[in-house]
Specification:
The structure is a single chain. The protein has 484 residues and is α+β, with helices and mostly antiparallel strands. Helices cover 55% and strands 10% of the residues. The protein is built from 19 helices and twelve strands. A five-stranded mixed β-sheet has the order 1-2-8-5-3. It has a three-stranded antiparallel β-sheet with strand order 4-12-9. Strands 6-7 form a two-stranded antiparallel sheet. It is globular. It starts with a helix and ends with a strand. Bound molecules: protoporphyrin IX containing FE (HEM). Residues 112, 127-128, 139, 142, 146, 193, 288, 291-292, 295-296, 299, 359-360, 363, 425-427, 431, 433-435, 438-439 line the site of protoporphyrin IX containing FE. Keywords: Heme, Iron, Membrane, Metal-binding, Monooxygenase, Oxidoreductase, Transmembrane, Transmembrane helix. It is a single-pass membrane protein. Pathway: Plant hormone biosynthesis; brassinosteroid biosynthesis; Hormone biosynthesis; Steroid biosynthesis. Heme binds at residue 433.
Length: 484
Amino acid sequence: MDFVLGILVLVVVITGWWYCNRRKKSLYMVIKTSSESSSKIPKGSSGWPFIGETLHFIASGYSSQPLSFMDKRKSLYGKVFKSHLLGLPIIVSIDPEVNKVVLQNHGNSFIPYYPKSIQELFGKSSILQMSGNVHKKVHGLIGGFLKSPQLKARITKEIERCVGISMESWRDKELIYMQEETKDITFPVLVKVLMGVDPGEDLEFLKREFGEFIKGLVSLPIKLPGTRLYKSLKAKKKLLKLVNRIVEEKKLKMEVMTGDVMDAMEMLLSDAGDYIPFDSIGENIVEMMIPGEESVPMLMTLAIKYLSDCPLALQQLKEENMDLKTQKRHLGEDYLWTDYMSLPFTQNVISETLRIANIINAVWRKAIKDVEIKGYLIPKGWCMQAYFSSVHMDEDNYENPYQFDPWRWQTKAGHVNNYNTCFTPFGGGQRLCPGLEFSRLEVSIFLHHFVTSYRWVAEEDSIVSFPTVKMKRKLPIRVTPVKT
Ligand code: HEM
């Protein structure tokens, strides 16, 4: 396994080196021009020729101390340092103020940067690759749609339905794998929100092909038959065939009928015509599944993991949610989305899980001009990594950062939705996650029904942080229904 990994890393690095060498000349010229400025490229090391510091970076991601790479450099150079990762010269920031400026991106000095395999799998007009004015408009449309009270009211029923189906199926099982079960809950909800697809053949097809498609996101950038990237591109083609058919059907329906916009696809069809060409709508919808597909089930899974290890927090969470359940039963009322979101301790558990789990550990950008932040120079063409995990786990920002402590949010200003420089699990600024409120709602509904309907005992498991956050054994738990 380690040998295969080593080979993979080597090939990534050599590909990166080749890519880099093509651009070397122009990069050096820009740095020279910038020497007139008083700002300096941050201190740091470019590591070994060609491979830079990539091996250390990846090895620490796989270890039980995934922040050790960052911690070591912070102690040597400070919170902003230069490095050379995955074939690119890069400035890494674990300074919340610098990160804020990068995320706000006034003057549009940065564009999103993704590894080569991801770029290959994204369409040209994907929101994840857009920048400037067009991005601002499309981001606003999607954010407005996902945040709307109408959507939240409708989707609450759908989430309750999916949670109910999943939990019903556990009655005959003793051992369940939380990481898998939560995916079964969230995938149908995501597909309903994005393109209005109900359970059935299309949903099963989307699940299968999307699973195949995302496997290639972190892979070698080689498109030959048999390679991972090739298989993923093939899966994307199949996905697009189905999704484009749905786009056509919706367009025809919308030409003859008027009514509320029911999903993100309908919203793009009715409002985004000036920014996204008609034949790219399907592709955009497929790509919007990427940030939502794994992150929400991982947030649910990790909340269960941390609660299993912290009985006091679990007890308080249960009490808060049982009170709501009893009240609703007594009044004979359905739940409103606002009921779920109004439980303060539940929101604190979610915030604390987001902080400590670091599901999206960083965002990557590329400078399209020389940029100066806090006296540091980020030269044109260099990558910039705003590394959130280290900010979330820094003693300067949080007392006992490695302790799961939902109570810390009772006193800390700016908790829950407020943008705060030291708490950026959903990013911030121009590209703040438009699925933020929707994700919190989904997790709140899941936690409510789970902790008030089941007792459980979690088996031993550990968190792996690289390339994405996962449970090593998918978090096996033994569940017992409780009588309420
Ligand atoms: C726990 C759940 C989630 C987390 C932690 C999360 C985190 C993030 C982060 C950090 C970004 C910023 C990326 C950047 O700046 O480059 C982002 C962007 C985005 N997220 Fe989420 N996300 C979550 C759920 C969702 C869901 C459920 C959806 C869709 C329904 C979604 C849709 C998006 C989109 C479309 C973007 C791109 C925004 C843009 O570039 O303008 N996310 N997310």
